[in-house]
Amino acid sequence: MHQQPATARRVTIVDVARQAGVSTTAVSKVLRDAYGTSPHMRSRVRAAVDELGYRPSAAARALRGRTWTLGVMLPDVRNPFFADILDGVGEHLDDTEYQLFMTSGCNDATSEARVTEAMIDRSMDGLILIAPVSPPAHLDRLARTVPTVVIGRHSHSPRFDTVNDDDFTGAGLMVAHLAGLGHHRIAHIEHHETDRIRLAEMPNALRADGYRHAMHQHGLGEHIDIASTTYTRDGGYHGARILLDRKNPPTAIFAGADVVALGVLDALTEAGLSVPGDVSVAGYDNITLAGFRAISLTSVDQAGHRIGSTAARLLLERITDHTRPAAQVKLSPTAVVRGTTGPPR
Amino acid sequence: MHQQPATARRVTIVDVARQAGVSTTAVSKVLRDAYGTSPHMRSRVRAAVDELGYRPSAAARALRGRTWTLGVMLPDVRNPFFADILDGVGEHLDDTEYQLFMTSGCNDATSEARVTEAMIDRSMDGLILIAPVSPPAHLDRLARTVPTVVIGRHSHSPRFDTVNDDDFTGAGLMVAHLAGLGHHRIAHIEHHETDRIRLAEMPNALRADGYRHAMHQHGLGEHIDIASTTYTRDGGYHGARILLDRKNPPTAIFAGADVVALGVLDALTEAGLSVPGDVSVAGYDNITLAGFRAISLTSVDQAGHRIGSTAARLLLERITDHTRPAAQVKLSPTAVVRGTTGPPR
DNA sequence: AAACATTTGGAAAACGTTACCCACATCACT
DNA sequence: AGTGATGTGGGTAACGTTTTCCAAATGTTT
Could you tell me if A265 and A180 lie in one domain? Predict the structure, then answer.
């Protein structure tokens, strides 16, 4: 049995060139499908590559050309909606040479900056930012340095593409569903936003706007009732408590996110209220969990998969053509009706 | 207002050297805290670095030294248990220069190989593999090339460290809990494993073994009943259907994973059975979701956070000292009793 | 046959670091 | 004064690619 040496030197392009009896330039050309290679040389080089098990060093490549590496910045691995997006991105990249790496746990502008810097330091070819909170100027500066696509933020920069769900319309869909069931006192739980700029760009703000607009449209303007908390399970719990303490509590609660709706369900269970008998509950995002029979949450589906694959497509386009004008893609959400919504008692 | 040029050349070590009036060697030394720098030179260099906003290129570094990059291979972003591990890893790395990048969606040996190759191509300094399914020989070869820590696999290689929950004991804890409640017909749903080697190394196999062993210990050997499906929600659903169709159906179902338990709950809801009135249900992993009031699943907690931080610590140690003997860390699980388990009717 | 275009292949200079040397100055001790 | 140890700084060759030339060979048109 052959004992491998403890430190096996990596096979380089020089080894391949020697094996094939050609220059390193030739090998490089073949590998990159560049101009100036004869069929004969190509086959010899490819044979040598296979025989030696050569793999190009991304590090060395980075110094001259591409790294074939893309970075995805993810605020939170726990949010299952992001998993759908990742699936979409991954699927689009499967047929390409690109490799995807992600970071998670960026919840403020400081850590976002740290992560994006790290990606640039590593010469990544393109970045996908999911729901970033950094100020627009920072995103712009970033996109000047490296091809970038932003998901989940309704920006209009000439520097980067954006892919979004139409949150305004989506909120309207859910209000329409609830109003159609006969509800009047439909309340909303929003993610509290103070920053003036983000107020116009963040999905949560647009969902609240869409809610307000749709309530007016259905002649329910006087019943508009919003609890301002956060997009977390705790936020949902507290939001529900606030709404239930009103002198005229709502018969339906439309949470701005599914995780929020889960918190609402917790609060209702605790208060001894039945769903949808006493109160209807709806969420937003249609996370996988929402489909579980034990929960069966009515929600708005964002087509996360399509968001992801669209973002990947745009990014590759932008890497190829750095000057292409920026695109803003807006996808249409759909309402998914399940067991937590029903007619008011 | 100063208009930035469209293509800003990156600030390199040469620029810093010129600005500080020293050699590039000097700058490099200061940056790496290497020997041979006077306090005066250090301060001049650091000033130049700050002034120019210099950041070292990881790509160039990779060709000579470290990249300060660690890779985490994750089978599935959707499994919330992995998020706990990531938190632990991230926390341990926060005070260091290292940056973490992950990949997800590796569910077979082929894609695992592809991902690990990609990480090596990019000269990552160390790898953390979570629940890999590759054959041991492949893991060994990998660990020979790059410092590696494996989580969720009870291997005993001299090449890499492992961090695991004591799955055998954990299963025993849950059987003890259920038996203590008065259950006799306690069934188990396992992840079907055919590979002979993995049978000895994979947590799922150890959980099933632990279940069997504990049943015997409690004098319930004759009631051992295992449904062999997969560790997915569907697997749980089908497993439950199989068990419920027995002529003597179990009064308690211990699923090998929380996601499986969720599928079990679906099947029970569908069958019109109450939990824990008709059937008690327990899972394994204590995913965040298990704590949701609407679910309130009894489970075994694996201390994912501690698994992650331990793995990170071991990895950094191994990067520093390549020759340190391999360690196998086994952490103790705890049972978390919630609403889905109760005495049999 | 001369002139020119095209194909085929390679030499060599980047790319931005680090590591291995060597040189010089300073200081303490014989 | 001579010797050796120590501190301080830099020159330069890697590291493994890609890219820009340039030269030779071959083919095509006058």
Answer: yes
Q: Could you tell me if B159 and B193 lie in one domain?
A: no
The arithmetic mean of pLDDT across residues A287-298, rounded, is 84
A64 CB inside 7 Å of strand D: yes
Query: Nearest nt to A29, CA vs C1'?
Result: D18
In this structure, are B212 and B99 located in the same domain? no
Residues A179 and A296 in one domain: yes
Asked if A99 is an interface residue toward chain B (Cβ–Cβ < 8 A), one would say yes
Which conformational region is residue B318 in: left (phi greater than 0), alpha (psi within -120 to 50 degrees), or beta?
alpha
Total tally of structural domains belonging to chain B: 3
Q: In this structure, what CATH number is given to the domain that contains residue A52?
A: 1.10.260.40
Same domain, A24 and A81: no
Residues A179 and A291 grouped into a single domain = yes
Distance A335 CA to D24 C1' (A): 69
User: Which residue segment(s) compose the domain that A85 sits in?
Assistant: 69-165+304-332
A14 contact B CB<8A: no
Those of residues 214-253 in B touching chain A at CB distance below 8 A are 233
- The reply to whether A3 falls in a domain is no
Give the distance from residue A234's alpha carbon to the nearest chain B alpha carbon, in angstroms.
11
Residues of B in contact with A113 (CB under 8 A): none
Nearest to A58 among B90, B121, B265 (CB): B121
Put simply, whether A4 touches B (Cβ < 8 Å) is yes
Nucleic acid strand D: bases within 7 A of protein CB: 7-12, 14-21
Q: What's the pLDDT at A7? A: 52
Task: Give pLDDT tens digits along chain B (345 positions).
Answer: 333 444 567 899 999 999 999 999 999 999 988 888 889 999 999 999 999 999 999 999 999 878 999 999 999 888 878 888 999 999 999 889 899 999 998 888 999 999 999 999 999 999 999 999 999 999 999 999 999 999 999 999 999 999 999 999 999 999 999 999 999 999 999 999 888 777 888 999 999 999 999 999 999 999 999 999 999 889 999 999 999 999 999 999 999 999 999 999 999 999 999 999 999 999 999 987 888 777 899 999 998 899 999 999 999 999 988 888 999 999 999 999 999 999 998
Q: Inter-chain contact A58–B4, Cβ cutoff 8 Å?
A: no
What is the average pLDDT score of chain A? 91
Same-domain pairing of B179 and B238? yes
Of A55, A87, A269, the CB nearest to B294: A269
CB nearest A292 (choices: B58, B144, B262):
B262
Structural domain ending residue among the three candidates B267, B284, B303? B303
pLDDT tens digit sequence for A149-171? 999 999 999 999 999 999 999 99
User: A176 and A236 share a domain?
Assistant: yes
Residues of chain B found within 8 Å of residue A260, distances taken between Cβ atoms: none
Residue A4 has pLDDT above 60, yes or no: no
Q: Flag whether B64 is in a domain.
A: no
pLDDT score of A2:
38
A82 to chain B, any CB pair closer than 8 A? The answer is yes
* Domain CATH for A202: 3.40.50.2300
- The answer to whether B65 CB is within 7 Å of strand C is yes
Distance B112 CA to D12 C1' (A): 41
